[in-house]
Structure formats: C-alpha cells, structure tokens
Design a protein that fits this description.
Number of strands: 24
CATH topology of the largest domain: Heat Shock Protein 90
CATH class of the largest domain: Alpha Beta
Radius of gyration: 40 Å
Distance between the termini: 115 Å
Shape: elongated
Strand content: 15-25%
Helix content: 40-55%
Length: about 650
C-alpha cells in the first residue's frame, strides 16, 4: 500500500467518496480531507503536509483556478489535479498553463490512479533535486568562504566557457557582481587586451579547452572592466577534471599587477633621469645650432637688402626658411616621442615617401638603395610627415649599422587580410613596407629592447629613433615587426592599414611645396589668436590675398564683432581660429557659436598642439582645414584653397 495524504476540494460528498474508493482500490492507503472554501483550504494547507490536491473545477462559492492560486501563493510543491463533470478543452489547457498537473472529467476517473502515481513520482524527483541543489549550495558557500580569503581573482567556467563562479576579488577587478557574471560567456566579463597593441586577445579559457592543458601569461595583459577602466594583470588557467579525468570546466586565477608595475616604472624612471639630462643637453645644442643658422641668414639678408643685393637677400632668406623647417621637424619629433603628436591624416599613397626619403637620408654615404614597389599600392590614411619620419629613422638606423658601406632594399606590397605570415591575426588589408639591410644584424638578447625609449647601442645615440617609429606606427593603427640574423642583416616590417572607404574622401595633395598660387579672394576675414605677432602676420598675408582682415585676441570679442558684421549686412566670409586661448574660449567653442549666426561660414583651425583631435580630423569639428604652428606661407595659401567658393575665379 502506498501512503497518500489527499486533500479534496469538492462540494459533493458522494463524488469525494467515489474518488476515495478508486484510490483505495488501486493500492493507495489514503488519508483524506475535504474542503469547500478558500478559508478552509488555507487552514488545511497550513495544518499538515499533503501529497496531492484533487479539485472539482466549479463549487458554489469557490473554483479550481482560485484554489490553484492559493496553492501557488503558499509556495508548496503539491501536485494539483482538476476533476470536473463538465470542462471543455480550452479550460483544461488554461489550467495546465497556470500550473495544474493534470485534468480529468468525472466520466474518465479510471485515469485518476495512474495520474496520481505519476505525480507522486515526479514530486519525489523534485524533492530529491531540491535536496541536491541545497547540498550543492552549501558546498558552494564553503568554497566561496575559502575563495574570499584568497588575494587573487578566481573565475570558473563550464565546457561552453560560461561562468559558473566568481569570487569577490574577481568581482572587484572586472566590475561585475557575481549575479550578473554567472551563466554569461567569459569573453563578455573578462576582456583582455594585448599590452603592446591594445588588440583583443584570445580567451585563456578557450586556449585551455582547445589544448586540454593549462596556460599561464608570460607578460602582463590589460584587463578592461565594466566601466572601461584598464588595469595590468597576470593570469593562469587550468582545466577542471572529474573522477574520470575528463575536463568539465576551467578555473582562471588572476591578480592585479598595477602596484608592481608602478614600482617597476618608478625604478625605470630613476634610471632614465640621467638619460633625460643627456637628451636635454643634446636638444639644446641642436636648437642653438638651428637658431644660429636662422639668425645668421636673416642678418646677412638684412645687410644684403641695404646694399640692394636682391638675389643674395632672397637666397639667404630661403636658407633661413630651410633651417626653420628643420627646427619645426625637430619639434614635431619631440612631440611625437612625448606621445603628444597625434597624426594629421589624409588619404594618400606611400610611394612618394618611399622614393623621396631614402635619397635624402643616404645622401653622401657609401650605402646604396634598391626600391621594389608594387604598381598598384593601396592608399593609406596617414600623416605624411610622421610616416616620412618613420622611414627616415629606419633607413638612418640601417645606414649607421653599415659604416663600411652596404645595401638597403625597400619593398612595398599589398597584403590582404588573413594572409600567412602576418604578425597579428586580426590585421585587415595592409600595405607592408620591408626595409632590409646587409649590416651585422641585431643581437637576439637586445631585440626585445630596441623599441624602448633611450635604449641605444651607439655611443652618440639618444635612443629616440626606433621608439618614435613604434609610437607613430601605433598611432596609425599599424604595426612594426623585425627579423634579424647575426652576420646577415636585419629587416624591419612596417604594416599600415589600407584606407577605409569613408577615409578616401580625405584626399591628400602631397607635400606643400613652393609654388602654390597666391589665392585671390575678396570679403572680410576674422582672425582670432592670442599672440599679437601672429595676428599682424596673418593680417598682412591675407591682405595681400585681397581680403579685408579683422584681428581679435579673444573669443568673446570675436563673437561680438562677427555678430555686428552680420547685422550690418557685411558678414565675414572666413574665420581663422586659434584652438587654444589661455583663460578664454578656444576655437572649437567659438566656431560652435559662430555656426548659430552663419551655418555656412568657412573656418580654418590653427594650433601649436598637434595632439588636439581637431588637427587630426578638422572636418569632424566643422573646420575646412587646419594649420599646424609654425606654418609657412604656402601652407596658409593651401588652407585657403580648401574653402569652397571663397576665391575669385581666374581671369
């Protein structure tokens, strides 16, 4: 006999007795109670445990849906079976959706005993499952207590790579509470970037699941938390195996390396202070030489002018401008090295740079150069000056490695995404430039350090050249790689991303060269700059172009004058705005207000800070073009040519 505690919701004593007899006949030892109202049902549920509830669908003052709602409200897991004399299929389906275990008509009570037996078995399975879940929860709690005392972050996953457990340290480092992290793919919570490229890394759990072996980081990686903050970490991942040695998951242990890295950086910086002193002395020496060249050439030009020697005056002023350009390039190199020189990019071919740069850098040396350039090289979105500096530095490095002479071979070719031999699997279409020399090669012990700032093997070197190569390539979204063999030579590989379709509209016109025609325009131009001498120069140069020039030193004055000109029906046709005004509004803020007055105004940005994002992407901030201070006459003229409809038509 199977003991059965049966609670009946029935208003008919005879129907209740019939159900009781059927259950006893089928081998159940029944303890039964009958209720007819919601109140008595609640009392019965609270008084003792029940194995089954059998309810008539419709009673005079109660019904099965109401009874089922009360049972669900109590939180008790008791099978609920509906028995009715008349119940359509639609009602039966609705009851099943609401949680009833089964439904029967009083004309088919032969199904009652099997249904009760089935529900008792399923209820027992659910009880055992709850016990197992409770036992597992207790075990998990004990494990969490242990994990809370560990100073490292711990995350475990299942075979799908979905998170099953997160300890408090891991919560803190990732920024995700355990409740949010569990059951989600590890890649959504544990986001790793490579330390050198800032590119996403292969998930360490995937490595373990694919190889079946543990994996440990050999260098610090970057972990990005839920707020986008980055921190340096080291980690190790190992498989979790069951009694049969089968992998059932992975445990990932990681620790914050920020403090250790800061200590390491402090020690490194202490070592660099002496090198910085040497570097500062070298820079001062170079600038003094350049300034001497500028001053002397100008002095000679002034003397020649007094004597009426026009040709000599022009020659000396041209020489002063050449030295000035060298000083400007040195400043840009220092800004780039200091990570303050964001590239001012345009879409162009790398070919002109590769043809021009080696000729200049190898002039007067005993090193020859061969070029092998693919005919249809893809366009790249680059800063021409900075990429030229990259090529210059690599070529110069190769020249210095071959004091007795040698050969440099420069190759440029298109490399489609996914091609074999790429240094990173996630590179898209790129242009690869290889610069190979026949020098002595680089000692394998030194290769990991050649891109470090201040590291050099040359007695007179300052260690900036290759570190700037690395910095510039990184800022262009590219890569630099090296192959070297002692006694054979070295090859530097430069990978520049192919220009995207949306970048191809930002066309470059090549380097600014003397001969850009003086623009002839008309109308009023507003110049805003905090330096008086720059305002005076711009007034004179723009006046030579036919413009009427008004100069101001601050933003509020610029807005006031601009508005007054609009009101007088004598509007300005162009504005030249300095991006940085000490203690006042800069060019971007001023342009935003001027656009409210004249949405079509042509604007040119000017700044001595090449790290300003406006200088890299002027169109995104509403400017037609930009001028990097110090700028030459030709550069100003070229900027004016970018303003549509501003210039007079050629006669």
């Amino acid at each position: 006999m199977i003991r059965l505690r049966c609670l009946q919701i029935e208003d008919s004593e005879s129907d209740a007795a019939l159900i009781l007899r059927l259950l006893i006949k089928n081998g159940f030892d029944v303890q039964s109670e009958r209720v007819e109202t919601a109140a008595t049902l609640r009392e019965a549920l609270a008084r003792q445990p029940w194995d089954i509830v059998i309810a008539d669908y419709q009673l005079p003052d109660f019904n099965a849906p109401g009874a089922l709602a009360i049972l669900k409200e109590s939180g008790l897991d008791i099978p609920f079976i509906v028995v009715s004399g008349m119940m359509g299929e639609e009602i039966a389906v609705q009851m099943m959706k609401e949680g009833a275990a089964d439904y029967l008509t009083k004309g088919s009570l032969s199904r009652l005993a099997p249904a009760v037996g089935r529900e008792l078995r399923e209820a027992e399975v659910r009880r055992e499952r709850r016990k197992a879940v409770a036992a597992l929860a207790e075990e998990k709690e004990r494990l969490l207590v242990t994990l809370r005392s560990i100073g490292e972050g711990v995350i475990t996953t299942d075979m799908r790579g979905h998170i099953t457990l997160v300890n408090p340290i891991a919560e803190s480092l990732t920024g995700y509470p355990a409740a949010q992290a569990e059951n989600r793919p590890l890649s959504e919570i544990f986001r790793l970037l490579a330390p050198d490229t800032d590119l996403p890394c292969v998930n360490p759990v995937s490595r373990v699941l694919d190889s079946g072996e543990g994996y440990e980081s050999l260098q610090p990686y970057i972990l990005v938390d839920v707020l986008g903050r980055e921190r340096s970490i080291s980690f190790g991942a190992s498989p979790i195996r069951d009694e049969g040695k089968r992998i059932i998951g992975v445990v990932l242990v990681f620790r914050d390396m920020t403090r250790e890295q800061k200590i390491h950086e402090i020690l490194q910086n202490a070592d660099k202070l002496q090198s910085i002193g040497v570097l500062a002395g070298g820079i001062a020496h170079d600038f003094n030489n350049l300034l001497s060249g500028i001053f002397c050439n100008i002095e000679i030009a002034r003397i020649s002018c007094r004597r009426g020697e026009t040709d000599k005056t022009i020659s000396r002023l041209g020489a002063a401008l050449d030295v000035f350009s060298r000083a400007k390039d040195l400043t840009r190199q220092l800004l780039t090295f200091a990570r303050g020189g964001m590239p001012v990019q345009k879409t162009m071919s790398i070919e002109p740079i590769l043809r021009r740069s080696p000729t200049f850098m190898l002039s007067g040396s005993n090193v020859s150069c061969e070029l092998h350039l693919q005919a249809d090289l893809w366009l790249c979105y680059i800063d021409e000056n900075q990429i030229a500096q990259v090529v210059d530095n690599v070529v110069l490095n190769a020249r210095q490695a071959m004091p007795q002479g040698g050969q440099i071979t420069i190759t440029a070719e298109n490399v489609p995404a996914g091609s074999p031999g790429l240094p990173a699997t996630d590179l898209g279409d790129t242009v690869r430039i290889s610069i190979r020399d026949t020098g002595p090669g680089i000692d394998p012990k030194l290769r990991s350090r050649i891109f470090d700032p201040f590291f050099t093997t040359k007695p007179s070197g300052n260690g900036l050249g290759l570190s700037m190569v690395y910095s510039i390539m990184k800022r262009h979204g590219g890569l630099v790689d090296l192959e070297s063999q002692m006694g054979v030579g070295s090859t530097f590989f430069l990978y520049l991303p192919r220009a995207r379709e949306d970048q191809k509209s930002v066309r470059g016109t090549g380097a600014v060269v003397p001969g850009v025609p003086t623009p002839r325009g008309e109308g009023k131009v507003l110049v805003m700059d905090d330096e008086e001498f720059i305002r005076n120069i711009c007034r004179e140069l723009l006046g030579e172009c036919g413009f009427s020039v008004t100069c101001v030193s601050g933003g509020d004055e610029a807005i006031e004058i601009f508005r007054a000109a609009r009101d007088e029906k004598k509007p300005f046709v162009m504005v030249l705005l300095d991006l940085t005004i000490p203690g006042g509004k800069g060019g971007c803020e001023i342009l935003a207000e001027l656009r409210h007055l004249d949405p079509a105004i042509c604007a040119i940005a000017a700044s001595g800070y090449s790290n300003d994002p406006v200088m890299s992407h002027p169109a995104e901030y509403g400017f037609s073009s930009c001028l990097v201070k110090p700028f030459k006459l030709e550069e100003l003229f070229e900027a004016i040519h970018t303003c549509p409809g501003l210039l007079k038509s050629a006669p």
